[in-house]
Amino acid sequence: MKYQNTSIANVKTGEAIVVAELNGQILSGNKEAIELYNYPSLKAFKEKSLKDLMPEDFAALYPEEMTPEHINFDGYYTHVCKKNNGELFACKLHTHYQNFQGKKLLIGHVQEIHEHVDIEKIRLEQIIIVLERELKAERAKNFNNNYIQIIKQFSRCYPMLSNNDLKVCYYLTLNYNSKQISQQLNITTDGVYAARKRIRKKLKLRPDQDLVKFLSNCVRSC
């Protein structure tokens, strides 16, 4: 299948393909998708959103925009989808992003499961999965907001600190140890030790002053 003269990546024979905006608006689909979801034409299919292809309880949890936390990048997951006539069916679903003329769109690969399965059990499992993903996305959002706020605080109060120093300071306020910081910043533990020594020197701390406590107090008072 092609969309905007660009081939969809990794399409399997007979696989239903859906192209959509990140907000869920359907832009296109191949004939397998139109037949699978029981729509009379591509035009009718494009008038719908991805929510219309889902059970109502699952559709209610659909985000305003699909983020990496919502995408099945690493393979096919078992899902329950809904046809145009309201009939529910089990399928294997894989999703990924693809760029078309500079715009990132969502691609869904759907394979109907023909053998008998417990649809109600799958519906419950997929709701649990999406709730876990929403929680992960919210945690990531809160982490980023907190990171930006604290980095700005340290930068304003201690302009002598470099960007790398500020990143180390942030993770120290989270009580990360040197190994954890090295993993987050992709540097060696020796690099973290050197950064801590450099930061102490720039902040003119006495030998008896605890760097982590000092930084934590700065977050509250700076």
Quick recap:
This protein has 222 residues and is α+β, with helices and mostly antiparallel strands.
Report on the structure:
By secondary structure, this protein is α+β, with helices and mostly antiparallel strands. The protein contains 8 helices and 7 strands, in the order ββββαααβββααααα. The protein has helices at 31-36, 42-46, 56-59, 119-157, 163-173, 178-185, 189-203, 211-221, and strands at 2-3, 6-7, 16-20, 26-29, 77-82, 88-100, 103-112. Strands 4-3-7-6-5 form a 5-stranded antiparallel sheet. A two-stranded antiparallel sheet has the order 1-2. A hairpin with a 2-residue loop joins β6 (88-100) and β7 (103-112). α4 crosses α5 and α5 (163-173) crosses α7 (189-203). The longest helix has 39 residues, at 119-157. It is elongated. The protein starts with a strand and ends with a helix. The model has no long low-confidence stretch (mean pLDDT 88).
